[in-house]
Amino acid sequence: MPDWLELVRLRLTGLALEKDDLAQVVEELAGHLDDQYQSLLDKGISEQTATKCVLQQVMDWGELKSKIESSRLKEQTMNRRVSQFWFPAFLTILLAMSFLMIVEALGFEPWVSSAWGGPQGTVPVAVVYLPWLITLPFIGALGAYLSGRAGAPPWAVFASVVFPAVPYLALFVIGLPTAVVLDGHVAHNIAISAFLVGFGVWVVLPAIALLAGGLPARYFSRKL
Amino acid sequence: MIPSGIKRGTAELVVLSMLQGGALHGYEIARRIEQETDGSLRFTLAALYPMLYRLEKQRWIRGAWETSPNGRRRRCYRLTPSGKLKIFPLRKEWSELFAALHHLAGVSNA
Question: Which of A28, A68, A70 comes nearest B75 by C-beta?
Answer without folding.
Answer: A28
